[in-house]
Amino acid sequence: MNSIDSSSYSNGGVTVLVVEDEPLVLDMISQELTDQGFAVLEADTAEAALSIIESGQSVDVLFTDIRLPGEMDGWGLAKTVRKAKPKLPVIYATGYTVERPAMVQVPGSVFLKKPYRPSAIAETIRTLIAAPIGGRY
User: Fold this and answer.
1) How many of the other CB atoms lie within 10 Å of CB of 125?
2) How far is the C-alpha of 123 from the C-alpha of 55, rounded, in Å?
3) 43 in the Ramachandran plot: left (φ > 0), alpha (ψ -120 to 50) or beta?
4) Which structural domains are found in the chain, ordered by start?
5) Distance in angstroms (rounded) separating the CA atoms of residues 70 and 79
6) What's the pTM?
């Protein structure tokens, strides 16, 4: 499902990799981020997201659902990606109850509980980009 929206964007050329297995939710998030001026890459599994990262495509923010089909969940995806890109901003999202998410989050990441406003994702991205972990990635 690795699709790329290459429309012009005004958020400093920021590309967001959105990892979500629910097609309607993925479409809603991608459309909102595109409308807000971000470039969007989409993946429906952690494995597809890793393929995008490994392909060398520019990714400035990772937005991932926690529960994903396949061998890896969102927690594992973020940890794996951070090994290659230690300063990459990460936003986790889930509709399920997660006790003490800070215990498994990568440092400097943000946790959003569903339901959230799609515009809240864009606001969170802008906040993370303004104060990246240890400087620009």
Assistant:
1) 22
2) 28
3) beta
4) 4-129 (3.40.50.2300)
5) 16
6) 0.86
